[in-house]
Amino acid sequence: MIVKQELVNKIKDHFSLNIYETKVWLALLSKGVVSAGETAELSGVPRSRTYDVLESLAKRGFAIIKIGKPVKYIAVEPHAIIEKIKSNVLTEAQEKVKLLGKLRERDEYKELEQLYSAGISPVKAEDLSGALKGKTHINSKLRDIFGNAKKEIAICTSVQDFDKRSRILLPEIEKLKKSNIRVKIALNGQESDIRKINNKHKLNAKITSNKGRFIIADKRESLFMITYEHSDEEIGLWINAPYFSEALNGMLNFSLR
Predict the structure, then answer these.
(1) Do 185 and 204 contact (CB within 8 A), yes or no?
(2) What span, in angstroms and rounded, lies between the C-alpha atoms of 138 and 214?
(3) Residues of the chain with pLDDT under 50
(4) Is the Cβ–Cβ distance between 156 and 208 less than 8 Å?
(5) DSSP for 9-43, written as a single string
(6) Beta-carbon neighbour count of residue 245 at 10 Å?
(7) Where do the domains of the chain lie?
(8) In CATH, what is the architecture of 126-255?
(9) Which residues touch 220 (CB under 8 Å, ≥6 apart)?
(10) Distance between terminal CA atoms of the chain?
């Protein structure tokens, strides 16, 4: 069986297998049911390693052991493997979230908070700033800012950008409303598109002439984009400075219609 190395590398990465496991699984898929000896011939994996690899694949659900002499192995279809992996990842993620949620109750977490408070108190406000690269880091910081808000949040962006981030923004906005935290949304774009956004999500977004994309929490903490909306890699600048945030908030209010 001749399989391109490029395919082997891609399958290995997608399914978190090593090279031998990948070659043996591909051999299994090509025949359906094979013995260890046949697998070695098909895959090119040394016969002495084939048994261990087949056992490993069986334990992970990529193959089923067929009882008999000689022992043979049945390939599990790719669709079933994907669904199994998805289920495992989801279960692991849910367990991890539960553990992280309980972490705040532990003494070690309280010590972390104390270390941070002691370290941050002498720092000047202008030093509390930094650049964030990539949507993942920016979206993570957005959630942090929403979570830190005590009184109000101001959001300014384009209709298109709000729509793209709605999966993140809308749940956070709902949480703020339930906590009686004021949410001000200003969108630039076509008035008809803004009405659609308002009607669709039951919002009260205002029209703004401001072309910026930023968020302000409690007129203290700000995150604004310094790249064009359709840039390949988005870059945001986070600043925790009341003077700057108040000025930015004033500019936003001035631009509302």
Answers:
(1) yes
(2) 11
(3) 125-127
(4) yes
(5) HHHHHHHT--HHHHHHHHHHHHHSEEEHHHHHHHH
(6) 20
(7) 5-79, 126-255
(8) 2-Layer Sandwich (3.30)
(9) 240, 241, 242, 245
(10) 68
Element (H, E) at 221: strand 221-225
Q: Which DSSP string do the residues of 115-182 spell out, in sequence order? A: HHHHHHTTS-GGGSEEEEESHHHHHHHHHHHHHH-SSEEEEEEEHHHHHHTHHHHHHHHHHHHHTT-E
* Residues in a beta bridge with 14: none
- Which residue type, as a one-letter code, is found at position 69? K
Q: What is the pLDDT of residues 181-210, one digit of tens each?
A: 999 999 999 999 999 999 989 899 999 988
Domain 5-79 falls under CATH 3.40.50.1360: no
The alpha carbon of 7 is separated from its chain's Cα centroid by a whole number of angstroms, namely 27
Residues 6+ apart with CB under 8 A from 130: 237, 238
Give the 3-state secondary structure of residue 54: helix
Angle at 82 between CA 79 and CA 86, to 5 degrees: 140
The residues, ordered by sequence, that sit 6+ positions from 7 with a Cβ below 8 Å of its Cβ are 26
Domains 5-79 and 126-255 share a fold: no
Which region, left, alpha or beta, applies to residue 180 given φ > 0 means left and ψ of -120 to 50 means alpha? left
pLDDT tens for each residue of 161-187: 999 899 999 999 999 999 999 999 999
The sign of the CA dihedral 204, 210, 212, 216 is negative
The pair of three-digit structure tokens given for residue 256, joined into one six-digit string: 């509302």
Structure confidence by residue, pLDDT tens digits, 42-55: 888 888 898 899 98
**What pTM was computed for the model?**
0.56
